[in-house]
Predict the 3D structure of the following.
Amino acid sequence: MFRRVYLDNAATTPVDPRVLESLLPYLREKFGNASSIHFYGQESRSAVDRARHQVADLIGSRPNEIVFTSGGTESNNLAIKGLFEANRRHGCHIVTTAVEHPAVGSVCERLANDGAKLTVVPVGAGGCADLETVRAAIRDDTVLVTVMLVNNEIGAVQPIKEIGAIIQDLRAGGHKLWLHTDAVQAAGKIPVSVEDLGCDLLSLSGHKVYGPKGIGALYVKRGVRIAPQNIGGHQERERRGGTENVAFAAALGAACEIASAEMGENAKRIARLRDRFEAEILEAVPDIVINGLEGPRSPYISNISFKGIEERGF
């Protein structure tokens, strides 16, 4: 007999019972299409609008800057491809890092295969990009810089605020370029303010913060143009066509509201657990390396290398 312990919350979290309660009415009696003008539709529209406010409050944006998507992967695709396609006249060069999630890295590679120019910036021992290296990678034809906020493997917190300041300085000089950050591992876990970060686009996902799988959001700063990738409807202010997933949008909103209220205490508690976890493993198995100690880390992720153990595929 043994007891299973789930240690993969960076991949997905269980649905909070309070979040589940928020979505069930929109799977049962409140079933209207949010684009319909009758009572049933407007009842659903009200739920989507409320959720938009809840998501915006979590990251300090305006509600009309939030686009609901099917998750973090779609948010990243819409941000990168949408920004690049809508602003191609300003340049064809993209800067990213070597440690991005495939939902960012693979999109950049696809664009590069289709004619974009791509620079992949390395990171240091702590998993963070060097600011001067990022600055040096930006060219006259750079249109987009995309760097994740929290790394999903080792939890390294990237200097997005400082990268944002670099981009704002260049923009003040007339350079047309924008900053996207994949905040899937950050939003709802550590404080995130789009204004403080200086980003133009930010991706987040519901199932990382005790919401359901299949819902996410993209922050698009007011005035930033993106080309829609889902064509066929006028939803989301022409930025993402398709009937709104009302129930899951309501659930994402509830998850964001709960995260806003409980984030501080949760982060302190998790940081204590992580530190104890790592200390006890280090005491029992001295020949290990805790990755990411060289820079700021998210309290929610621990990455440990065991010397002498070869990596094997599953």
Observations:
- The first helix runs from residue 17 to 23.
- DSSP finds nine helices and nine strands in the chain.
